[in-house]
Design brief:
This protein is α+β, with helices and mostly antiparallel strands. It is built from 8 helices and 8 strands. It has 2 domains: about 200 residues, no CATH class; about 90 residues, PDZ domain (Pdz3 Domain, Roll), CATH 2.30.42.10.
Length: about 350
């Protein structure tokens, strides 16, 4: 049975890549750029079909893809070459893949929350306890931050706890009677609704509506964007070990495990991965869309493009480094998979 979930994970991850590349493809076509090949996957082609000027191919490795445009990486005399378009059109083409991933992520979230009728908020409805100290949560408090981690949604409470002190004691910032109050050294359990001191905390439940679902979807989408940013800062600061990095194999296993548990959670995870792909591809790293965007922005500012051969050298070096990183994380994923 696990094989079915693995295949499903591979197909869904490949679909996210296809959505990304389709963003480049459709924007290039609408901009009048000649697209020589549109490929889903990497490595040798297993299916190929020529339609008009474009070769469409499906390749053996499902993790990747590309939209090969005329004159994208070299000088071309073709009047429909990528380099012949206005710089603003090229910026739109380069960013369209990430934009499609972000849109797809938000659409997936809207499907996840469509059947939801209510959800918890970070506002305390009641606290059941014999007596409360001054340094305690009270009815009407809205949790705003836990150990410096801003809380916008109920789920942020538990993210804040996981990032905070390991002793279960936190500095909790709340909005109380219109004023911000800091509750220092508050014992707060990671168990939903319960405090380690024994009193029960109940949170306000908000009923659903069309506008409420739209707002909740947008809030969750923005929150996933923040989680990607937080993850990047953790990685750069050394808070996250390189051994915690995962590539396509690790992501596929995670998706397969999630699918076995709950399909709704799988769609939520897929939304997160889609948003993650969109943001990561816009990072100013050579060979990624963000690296190409940097050169286009430089051209926009100085009104003159950088020589293609120099840009090509930078992207080639970046691609080589990315391939080394991919080999490392794939090896890491396989080792963890064998240990599992």
């Amino acid at each position: 049975m696990i094989q079915i979930y693995i295949v499903l994970a591979v197909v869904l991850f490949g679909a996210l890549v296809a959505v990304h590349e389709f963003g480049h493809f459709i924007t290039a076509k609408l901009s009048g750029v000649r697209v020589n090949e549109f490929a889903i996957g990497m490595g040798p082609a297993i299916l190929k079909k020529q339609f008009g000027e474009t070769l469409y191919s499906l390749r053996i490795l499902p993790f990747g893809g590309f939209c090969a445009m005329e004159g994208e990486d070299a000088v071309s005399d073709d009047p429909r070459a990528f380099g012949s378009r206005h710089v603003l059109s090229r910026i739109l083409i380069v960013t369209a893949g990430s934009l499609m991933n972000l849109i797809s992520g938000f659409l997936l979230l809207s499907l996840v929350f469509a059947p939801v009728r209510s959800w918890y908020t970070p506002t305390v409805e009641s606290v059941e306890a014999p007596q409360l100290s001054e340094n305690a949560l009270r009815a009407g408090d809205t949790i705003k931050a836990i150990d410096g981690y801003n809380v916008y949604l109920y789920s942020d409470i538990f993210v804040g706890m996981s990032r905070g002190a390991e002793d279960g004691v936190y500095d909790v910032e709340v909005l109380r009677d219109g004023e911000t109050v800091l509750l220092e050294d508050l014992a707060f359990s990671a168990s939903e609704g319960e405090n380690e001191d024994g009193y029960a905390i109940n949170f306000v439940v908000e009923e659903t509506s069309f506008t409420g679902k739209l707002k909740y979807t947008l809030q969750n989408g923005a929150n996933l964007v923040r989680l990607v940013k937080v993850g990047l800062f953790d990685l750069l600061s050394g808070s996250v070990s390189k051994d915690d990095l995962s590539g396509p194999v690790g992501i596929g296993k995670m998706m397969a495990d999630t699918a076995k548990t709950d399909m709704s959670s799988l769609w939520y995870l897929l939304a997160f991965i889609s948003i993650n792909l969109g943001i990561m591809n816009l990072l100013p790293i050579p060979a990624l869309d963000g690296g190409r965007l940097v050169f286009l922005l430089i051209e926009l500012i100085r009104r003159k493009p950088i020589a293609p051969k120099y840009e090509g050298f930078v992207h080639a070096a970046g691609l080589a480094l990315l391939m080394l990183l991919m080999l490392f994380v794939t090896y890491n994923d396989i080792i963890k998979l064998l240990a599992w």
